[in-house]
Structures are given as C-alpha cells and as structure tokens.
Design brief:
Layout (H helix, E strand, L loop, with lengths): L8 E3 L3 E7 L4 E8 L3 E11 L2 E5 L6 H10 L5 E3 L13 E7 L11 E3 L13 E4 L3 E8 L2 E8 L2 E4 L7 H10 L4 E8 L12 E3 L13 E3 L10 E7 L1 E4 L6 E8 L2 E5 L6 H10 L5 E3 L13 E2 L2 E2 L13 E2 L13 E4 L21 E9 L2 E8 L2 E5 L6 H10 L5 E5 L11 E3 L31 E4 L4 E5 L5 E8 L2 E5 L6 H10 L5 E5 L11 E3 L32 E5 L12 E5 L5 E8 L2 E5 L6 H11 L4 E5 L11 E5 L11 E4 L12 E4 L6 H6 L3 H32 L10 E3 L6 E3 L3 H8 L8
Parallel strand pairs: 5-7, 19-21, 27-29, 33-35, 39-41
Antiparallel strand pairs: 1-2, 2-3, 3-4, 4-5, 4-9, 6-9, 7-8, 10-11, 11-12, 11-16, 13-16, 14-15, 17-18, 18-19, 18-24, 20-24, 22-23, 25-26, 26-27, 26-30, 28-30, 31-32, 32-33, 32-36, 34-36, 37-38, 38-39, 38-43, 40-43, 41-42, 44-45
C-alpha cells in the first residue's frame, strides 16, 4: 500500500492541491477551489509521471467518500459529475470507478482504464467534502470558533485543548494565511454543537490539521463556555520598527509576496490596520520606505471605502494591471493604539467632520451619481456649472483615473436626502471635491432631477457583441472605448465566468475564427487567466492594458453561453427598474446586444407598465411615467407596444426608437404595487372548480398541439422534404422581435440541444 508521502503543494492556476500516496503506480490529488477550501474540486490521478482525470461515468457518493477519507477531508457531501469543476488536462486514467466506500485509497476500488476509456475530458469527476476543520461565527470564513468534524458531526474545540501551533495549522489548512490571534471564546452556549474530547498536539509545520497527533485530554472536561476563537490573515507588515508598521505582504498559496502600491491609498491602509488590531492608518509612505521584498509582487488592487472589516471585503481588480517592482511596494504606518480608532476619519459614529465621496447607481465603482457623506448623511451634488474639471477631482479622489464625462440632469437616477453642494468650480488641483469653491454646505436652488454624475476612465464594462447579448465577440469597455479581448491563454473557466457575470448562463464555450485578417479595431487585453477563486472577470490576472494587444482576428475571443443542460443559443431576457426606491419602481431598462437600453415614452401607457410589473414579479402597475421621471438613462432606446396580457416584454411589439423622436429625456418609468404573487398564492385565490377547469383546458391544448405536430410531420414525410437549412435555417429569438440567422452556429446549437434549432 506504500507509505504516506509528505504533503506536496502545487500551484496550478485554478487553486491548490495536496498529494498523498495511494499505491505503487498511482498518486491521487484533489485540485481544490480556493473559495471553498482544499476539500472540493476535480479529482486527478498521476500515473507514469503524468497527471490525468477520472471519468464520471458511474461516479457516486461511495467513490467520493474514499477520496475525502484519503485526503483527510472528512466525509463526502457531493459527488459532482460531468466536469463540474471545469475540464482537466492530460489523459483520462480511470473510468467506471466502483468503490464500496470502505477502501483506504481510490486505487483500491475496481475500475477500468487506462486502455479502455470512453469518456470526454469535460466529463471528469469531482468531490465536495465536509473538511476536517472550520471556523464559524466570525466575519469571514477565516475567522471564528474552531470546530472539528468527528464521527459524522461538527464538534467545538476547547481553548485548553488548543494552542498557537494548532492555530497556525488551522489557518494553513483552510488556506487563510497565518494565525493573527487565538483566544478563548465563551460563545458556544447551551444547545450548540457537542464538544470534542481530544487534545491536538501539532508541531506547527503540518499542512493540514488532520496530520496533527491527538490524545485524550489531560485537562478538566470542557464546557460550552470555553471555546476557541481563531482569526487568520493573508496579510502582514514587515521591516517596521513595530508590528503595526511596515511593508505590506500577502500570502497566496503558501507564498508570501509584496503588494504593489499602484492603487494603494489611505482607505485600503485603514482597513488593514484595523484588521491587524493596529488602530487606523496614519500614513502610507512610498519609495521603498521599508525596504524591498524578495518574493513575487502581487499586482491586485483593492478599492476599499474604509468601512470594511478586512481587505477581503473590498472590491478587488487585477485585470490589466501594469508590471510592478519591489521598489513600488505598498506600506503603511498604523496608529498602533486601539483607542485611536475613535479619531479615525473612517470610524463610524456621529462625528460631523467625517466626509467621504462615492458613485451610486452606476454599472461599476467608477461611474454613477456623485454622493457625499457629510454630517452623518449621504447627499448629492447639483449639476449647476458641473464640468470635466469637477468630475476629474472625483475620479482622482476615488482612484478611478481621469474623467471621461461630467453627467448632469440625474443621468444615473435621482438621489434622495440632502443636496450638499451647488455651484462647484474646481481648478483641477484640489485633493477632494469639498476643497473646490462652491456654495456653502447645504445651500442650493436645485432639485434631485439635477443631480450630478461622472464617468471615469477606469470605468469598465463587459459585453458579448451580438444580437442577443449572450454570444459573440468578447469586448471590454475601458478608457471610453469598447475593445476586443484576445483569446491567448484563455480557458473554459474564463469563458464560463464571463457568462455568469452577464447573467447568460453558467457555461461558456470559447470560439475563434480560422481565417487570417488584420485586426484594426481596439483590442484591450490578452492572456486573461481566470481561476476558480475569481468571482468576477475584473479579478482575473492578465497582460497590461494595451489598445493593440493582438493584431490578428484569429486571436479574438468569441464566446457562446448556455445553462447546463440547455442550448447555447438560449436567450436570457433581462429587464430592470432603475432609479426608484426599490426594484419595483424606476426607469425601465432592457438588455439587448450586450448593453442596457431604455424605453421611449411615446405611446407608453398602463398596458405596457402592467407587463413590466408582471415580468419583474412586482404585482400590478400603479403608474406609467414618462419624461425621464426616474432620471435619464444611457444606451439605445426602444419603442414598445403591449396589449397588457403578455407575460413579458419580449411578447410585445418592439422596434428601435427613432433618435429624433426618442431621446433620453423621454425615458419611460414605472411604479408597481410591489406585491409579489407566486403561482401558489394566485391559485389560492381561485375556487377549486376554476382551478380544475384551467388544468383540464391546459391538458386539452397540449393534446391538440401533439396531434397537430403529428399531422404536420406526416405531411412533411410524404413530400420528402425537411426543415430548410443553410441560409434559410434560422433560430427565432423570443426577444424584441429579432430574427437572427445563425449560419454555421446552427450546427453547434443543434448538437447541444436538438430541439432548440432546426436541422437538416
């Protein structure tokens, strides 16, 4: 059976893996998802010095149970199939695995392969295990009370049975960096999880907690009032004279590296100081103030507003980041005194001198309505005299580059509350918007329909350029221009993340053209490599922004999205209400061709509003409003006419709005009752005979439809014909009345979902 090998850590781009011995010929690894920990991922085996996957045919919970036990990951929770964690690489080493669940290693189970394997790389097996340890009740997965999985249940760990070395191993096991603090926690309470009756004897260098020896407790029996609380961190300060100052370092997959200072500011630094128990940030020295590091330089940028509990709660971007040297390392000098937090400019409370700025109701953090926090309240800025010089100060203050547009007339919807500033007249040299000449705070002659907004150069948007918005050329909006994304290094994981972010499904299919042509349009990015740990496209590392990242059309990325088990050409209708008090009132916007657009108020009436409210799940229509009552939108405009009985706008007549007759000052808006009736509630208001009649009527209609289909099929067969293909073969999208010819994509669509598109 072989001896147990020392743990081996591998950086594989998508996560983390741990290797154990399973025999003379095969080694098993679990490629883990960073966000879920080391105990969930695609199963891979190593044979003949090459890693390969396991086919998911007949893969079940008994097989997953063996993998979880072998890796010290508790018990199996799920046995995902068909490439749930993405396609692997290399050969498929095992097929038709059949474990009874008691085996020590996967290699002990009966299986076929590698000679006879009939499986696709996308059909690999995965596991989701319970894990051996977890932290619960904290403000993140890396902070909380320690619990250990033992005998099919989670058990609390006594503080007297737990030490600093065990805390280091817990943080390492959970991929949470290093232990920041460990202390007793009197928060178990009666009725909480049972108490573990063992004592950990960790050395401190173990990679997983299950490797630590245990023994019977030598102390008094533990009570529910003596738990253990551990806080882990991926961050540390080095080379300072105290533990509360120094160069910022981040741990990624077991490797400590320097954080680049290109976007590092006081808001980010304050969040880190508070997380480390070091008060607030006094300064962020630059120029290698605390020396140079020796490891990698992480180019990720954090965008904190200063109120977050730790940096993990801040928005983060890595896409398009420029190279960074060790001399440009982020650094901070913290106050080092907990009481000083009360004097922090970011501290919560009634301090009237605290001022902050943000952009609201935009499509990202660098575009939206300008709002200022003053005297404990958020308020807006009037657009009187509002221009690019004013907008540039806001963009610079938020770390969003330069200003592309100074928007007025409540472009991003009307705000609420106080209008703090009017007549702003910045010179361009000010550090903050409130440093610019303006009327006195709160003095104005404006209404919220005049709220100011900005669009900054760092504003980014994502789209698939095609008729349906869920397939086509991948493009990003940056520095005011839409540009392509090159496909070099791009994987199926990246394509799927794009689809998820666009609400177009959870699976993406990457395509490129085979015909060479010079690429003259802008191509912003190349070598975008998204992993399982990335929850947003903007978090994916890539080559730096460049307007000519590739010059060959064969390198442009094209993506087709689909739901698992559905056709890639399926259209996902999207509609939203913007600028109202909730999601049931505001400016009506629809998603088409990869962008949000508005509806023209020409002929807009209660019948149209009724359909919108029904589609939003917001009850009945109360008002059908026009003349940009909820603020002016952006993007294309549409004329829409409904009868009032349609289930959604895609069933209504529609056409692009005439730019002469339809302008954004004529954007339509709606106010719905907000009552969300479901099928169960609606049917509950009907009498039983009526319900029976509805059901019988539906069954009769279904029967008639089937008979009609049989008759039509028989006629076609007698004529020796078939559904038209080639130029005549089309998919009718049930969206905005658009008829799209798919050409060669019909074959892809039909292969995935024969009922979706016509075939020969």
């Amino acid at each position: 059976m072989g001896t147990r090998l020392p743990p081996l850590l591998l950086c594989l781009g998508t996560g983390y893996s741990q290797t154990h011995s399973v025999g003379l010929e095969a080694l098993l690894t679990l490629l883990c998802v960073c966000l879920k920990g080391r105990c969930a991922g695609r199963v891979e085996v190593k044979l003949q010095d090459q890693w390969g996957t396991v086919c998911s045919y007949s893969w079940d919970m008994a097989d997953a149970e063996v993998v979880c036990r072998q890796l010290g990951c508790g018990v199996a929770l799920e046995a995902p199939q068909y490439g749930y964690f993405g396609p692997g690489s290399g050969p498929i080493w095992m097929d038709v695995v059949d474990c009874n669940g008691t085996e020590f290693a996967l290699s002990d189970c009966t299986h076929e392969g590698p000679e006879e394997v009939y499986c696709l790389p996308s059909e690999n097996a995965g596991v989701m295990c319970s894990g051996f340890v977890r932290l619960v009740g904290g403000n993140s997965p890396c902070s909380g009370s320690v619990e250990i999985y033992d005998r099919d249940q989670w058990k609390a760990v006594c503080h007297s049975h737990f030490g600093a070395k065990a805390a280091e191993v817990v943080c390492r096991d959970l991929q949470c960096g290093t232990a920041l603090s460990v202390h007793g926690a009197a928060q178990l309470g009666e009725g909480a999880s049972p108490v573990w009756d063992r004592e950990l004897q960790c050395v401190g260098n173990e990679s997983v907690l299950s490797s630590c020896p245990t023994q019977a407790s030598r102390h008094q029996p533990c009570t529910h009032g003596n738990g253990t609380h551990v806080t882990c961190t991926w961050f540390r300060l080095v080379n300072g004279s105290t533990e509360c100052e120094g160069r910022v370092e981040v741990e990624v997959l077991g490797t400590w590296g320097t954080l680049c200072a290109s976007r590092w500011d006081l808001s980010d630094a304050h969040v880190l100081c508070r997380h480390l128990g070091c008060g607030f940030a006094e300064s962020i020295p630059g120029g290698g103030h605390f020396g140079s590091g020796t490891g990698p330089v992480w180019r990720d940028s954090f965008h904190c507003d200063g109120t977050e509990a730790h940096l993990g709660q801040c928005p983060m971007t890595a896409l398009g980041a420029s190279p960074c040297s060790q001399e440009n390392a982020a650094a901070v000098i913290c106050s080092g005194e907990c009481w000083a937090v009360l004097q922090s400019p970011f501290a919560p409370g009634p301090a009237h001198h605290i001022r902050r700025v943000r952009l609201a109701d935009g499509a990202g953090r660098c575009a939206g309505r300008v709002e200022i926090y003053y005297q404990g309240r958020w308020g807006t800025v009037c657009d009187d005299a509002w221009d690019l010089a004013d907008a540039a100060i806001v963009c610079h203050q938020l770390g969003c580059g330069g200003a592309l547009e100074a928007a007025g007339s409540a472009r991003f919807g009307e705000g609420s509350g106080q209008i703090w500033l009017d007549g702003v007249n910045c010179s361009g040299a000010e550090a903050a918007l409130w440093d610019c000449p303006a009327e006195a705070w709160g003095q104005h002659n404006c209404r919220h329909k005049e709220d100011a907004g900005v669009i900054c150069s760092e504003f980014m948007a994502l789209r698939l350029q095609n008729s349906d918005g869920c397939s086509g050329r991948l493009q990003v909006f940056y520095n005011g221009i839409w540009g392509s994304v090159c496909s070099n290094s791009m994987t199926a994981e990246t394509a799927s993340l794009v689809c998820k972010q666009l609400s177009c499904g959870d699976r993406g299919y990457l395509k490129t053209t085979s015909r060479y042509a010079k690429l003259s349009r802008t191509s912003w990015l190349d070598h975008v490599e998204c992993g399982k740990s990335n929850s947003s496209f903007w978090q994916c590392p890539s080559a730096p922004w460049h307007p000519q990242s590739c010059d060959d059309r064969r390198e442009e990325a094209h993506i087709t999205c689909a739901q698992v088990g559905s056709c890639p050409c399926a259209y996902r209708e999207k509609i939203r209400a913007v600028g109202g008090k909730d999601g049931c009132s505001g400016r009506v916007e629809i998603w088409h061709r990869g962008t949000w657009g508005t509806l023209c108020d020409n002929a807009w009436d209660m019948r149209d509003a009724e359909v919108v409210c029904r589609q939003l799940g917001c009850g009945s229509a109360v008002y059908a409003l026009g003349q940009a009552a909820a603020g002016e939108g952006t993007g294309p405009m549409w004329l829409m006419e409904c009868r009032g009985a349609e289930l959604s706008l895609q069933d209504c007549w529609a056409q692009p709005g005439d730019s002469g007759a339809c302008q954004h000052k004529a954007d339509a808006a709606v106010h719905c009752s907000g009552e969300q009736w479901g099928w169960e509630t609606s049917l509950g208001r009907l009498s039983v005979p009526v319900v029976i009649c509805i059901i019988l009527g539906a069954l009769l209609c279904l029967l008639l439809a089937l008979l009609a289909g049989q008759v039509q099929s028989a006629r076609v067969q007698r004529k020796g014909g078939s559904f038209p293909s080639g130029d005549g073969g089309r998919c009718l999208l049930a969206g905005l009345g658009v008829l799209v010819s798919w050409g060669t994509e019909t074959e892809l669509c039909a292969a995935s979902c024969p009922m979706c598109c016509p075939t020969d």
